[in-house]
Write a structure and sequence with these properties.
elongated; 62 residues; mainly alpha; 73% helix
């Protein structure tokens, strides 16, 4: 029978990392770091936060 090496990348690595983050109660930091690493998610986050800030500024200054 073949033994797995100490580290072998496979399709479940992301799930294992997310599961470990969840069990260590650092899931929010994990999700933010992963989403910030993705250029599309980063752009979407910046756009949404900018819109929210502009709406609040409009509401407070008008």
């Amino acid at each position: 029978m073949m033994q797995r090496s100490t580290y072998q990348a496979d399709a479940l690595d992301g799930f294992r990392e997310a599961g470990q983050a969840w069990s260590e109660n650092r899931s929010t930091a994990y999700l933010l770091r992963k989403s910030w690493a993705d250029p599309l998610s980063r752009a979407l986050t910046v756009i949404v936060l900018s819109i929210i800030a502009l709406v609040w500024a409009y509401l407070l200054l008008s």
